[in-house]
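Feature request, filed as a ticket because there's no other form

It would be nice if the structure record came with a short human-readable summary line next to the tokens. Right now we just get the raw output. Example of a typical job, pasted below so the devs can see what we mean:
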Amino acid sequence: MAPGVLWAGLMSPLSFRHPALWLICSTIISLAFLAGTLKQKKPGYKAGLFCCLALLLAGLSLLFRESIRFLLLPLAVAVTSFFGPEVFLPLWGALPVVEAKRIFLLHQYGDILFVLSAAGSAAVAYVSLRHFKAKTIELRQKLNTIREDPPGVSSGGLDLKEAAETELRSALNLAKHILGAGSASLFQAGADELSLRCSTARNPRVSGEGLIRLCYKKRQPVAIGNIKERDHNPGYSHEEEIRSMTASPLMDGDIVIGVLAADSPRPDAFAAMDTAALSALSLLFAGMLKRQRVHGEMDRNLRGFEVFRDESSMLLKTLDTRAIAQESVRAAMRIAPAMGAALFLIENDFFELKSLAGIREPGKKRFQSLRGSLAGNAMKHDAEPLYLSDIRDYSLPALPFDAGHIKAVLMQPLVYEDEMLGVLAMVSDRTNPLTVYQIELIRMLSNQLSVMLSRAILHERIRLMATTDGLTGLYNHRHFQERLAGEFKRLSRHPRPLSLLLVDIDFFKKVNDTYGHPAGDAVLKLVASIIKGIARDTDIPARYGGEEFAALLMDTDKAGAAQLAERLRRTIAETPFPIDGGNRKTLSVSVSIGVASFPADAKTKEALIEAADKALYRAKHEGRNRVVLS
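Raw output as currently delivered:
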């Protein structure tokens, strides 16, 4: 209806004959229409509003034609920016008709050009404003998206690090457009230094001291209109020339967590910049960095729990102390990747280095004491961890051996039911490498480790009781037979030399009868100790029964076995055996040894034992204190 009212009003002869009356009528119609339309804001109310305004302006133009013609061009632009083409196109179609009588009667070609230029200007303004509005809406949508649902970050399990970088790149591109900059860069603070986090520029590089560093130190925005004239260093560079720049600190309370910088190859590019926009962007980026830091901590915490869960289940699968030690060191380094780890366990009043990773290998693995090191001091803290974030001023070394340049340590004693089992030592070549959460996870892991080590040690003790002789500490007869049978099974698949020594103490019954059984036990223990000391790690020494011993020599032929047997015989013969500690009385002891080898003397386990036993029998009957080969 509104376009119809407009056309009727514009084309009515009344407008030319009685313009004042026409103006009064159009005013009444407009007011009535406005009262009904604006109150309800029905669809098309903008078009109706325009029609009413056009009627009023048309009436004024008829009364004061020449004096208000200058309003035509700004009116065209205003109508174009506020209304759509469905309104202003009919207007420019009607305007020449309204002006036709005056234009053609007076031959005012200038008026024709004026009308056409006004229409053209309005059309250009419409296209430009429409593009500007579309771009503004797009930028607002991007800003709202970043605030409400940051790009790349969702609860769908995406990689947080990748999502964070995507979020920052999108936000920096937005900041670049809003500020009208050539490029925008984000610098993150850490350990009193600024590092480049993300940039829209190509090949950006931080160049030490400069304006961004000044912004970081002063905690105030910095803006330079012409860097070359004032001989300033931006503090960073990239492929394009930087003539002007602005930077703003990103604050988390009273702490500067980063700097947002924008630059341009044009001088004074930010002279007319809205400071409110820079402040808003600074708040936005500060919030993003804080949120990403929280995401990072959550991710580390989650991975820490996963490591603790996985490694705890791995510790439950074994009762071998060395395997537990290796697994626990690996787990500790997964929780704290920036640190090396070493595990010391107490064994027979010594500290045995059971496992080591990320630390320089020492020359020995067994230590009499950990005193004089921070690891030793940690033993005084019961089960509480000793964390020193910076030990550069400490006089004590971190470990009982040279571990390199150490700046921070975490010493976690291993205690189970008031029994000190050892210490888990973690070291780093940088200061303050751990968070409170990591320390707590390592403490929890150590508690689990202490329980598993206690179980493994108890299991080892029970196993040793079942497989070793209680007096001498050597393997017992039953376990020796099992090991010998196992070796012969392997020999059937992979033949290799193997020798057996049977050792018998000469005149042992006389020792018991003369000096008593305690003296006899002392002789047995010392002979066993000598055998164990001469045997190699791969050999299997055992108490075969009574005063008789056996030694299974791996990968040893008859000649090698004869040499080792002769060395054993001579060592025992030359060793004084104390039988009365108070009077320092000693006794000379000798042994007879029979030697048999596979495959030279026997092809089976039983045949090898029989051959060695026959050789021992010959040694005893040929005068004792000698070695006889089968």
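Something like this underneath would help us a lot:
Residues 1-8, 10-15, 103-107, 149-158 have pLDDT under 50 and may be disordered.
The first strand starts at residue 183 and ends at 190.
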